[in-house]
């Protein structure tokens, strides 16, 4: 699991901002928000333009920018606006601290841009495994035996990053961790195996953008030809508060069409609400393989949801994916309660780049009976906004 994350000089975060999943408040209720003494379900609030989406992108940088090249997805970031616009420092710095069983892995890297590295360092249980300074050409990889990778052909990596011709983006984007994951065979259950598996199963789920239905729609409808799959999707929508009965019909051209079943069939995609289409997108992209996810970032997850649907969706994720760490960004203060959540799992992102849990954002001792939403709206935590 991810134990701590820090980023500095990235987008609107000029100063270091961190999130510590180990800062558990000791509450006895809603223990499902905590897994292995780490926060596993977290909601982040913040006024508009405080950088919630930027913070999501920062946490996901290790997979979207660094490692996803390994899985054929490629870099999703542009070089522009990568660094803080008010800083004189020409690189951003990222630090991830992972815990897998009794082992801890610290991974730090700094970059001038999404594809240009300054440095990279990995430690296992406080012992340095490798430490690279790309701009100085200093490479310390003498402790690879700590991860049973001492026989790997390290010189090939050094040759690839020292080529005179660096016009190929795949070369300029190459970091040693990515190269290590691609070329070393780690024993199942080992710390590096767990780290690779964790990073490969990190996902960003975005709800706050235009709902698209064209991509992969036919594949999904082919899946719904099976009655059990159609029943699962229908049950999911009903659980979210969308009361409906669905039917798949084969059209004369051989393609499938999805309908709401009434006395007269109503085309699903042409008539479904934005909230229903957002649920469709989530289900199609994630529910089918969500059981394998280990870390998910839900950005503006309830942008199209009624507050009751937001509650249902959050409850659904808590109940169905207990082994997945999840962060949700939201503006919905109705979710700021002790029925679904708890004060140490509800965070405020301030305008000046601070991330503070509610239990540390007031001098009061927050208890289960407190109305957190009412306290928030009355200005109890305003100092931290």
Notes on the protein architecture:
With 385 residues, the protein is an alpha+beta fold. Helices cover 27% and strands 24% of the residues. The chain is built from twelve helices and 18 strands. The strands form four sheets. The protein has a seven-stranded antiparallel beta sheet. Strands 11-15-16-5-17-18 form a six-stranded mixed beta sheet. Strand 1 (2-8) and strand 2 form a beta hairpin.
Q: Say how many strands there are.
A: 18
Sheet with most strands: strand arrangement = 2-1-6-7-8-9-10
SSE ordering: EEEEEHHEEEEEHHHHEHHEEEHHEHEEEH
Q: Which runs of at least 5 residues are low in confidence (pLDDT < 50)?
A: 69-76, 164-171
Shape: globular
In whole angstroms, the N-to-C terminal distance is: 28 Å
How many DSSP H or I helices? 12
State the share of residues found in helices, binned by percent: 25-40%
Average residue pLDDT: 89
Approximate strand percentage:
15-25%
Radius of gyration: 23 Å
- How would a crystallographer describe the biggest sheet? 7 strands, antiparallel
Structural class: alpha+beta
Specify the oligomeric state: single chain
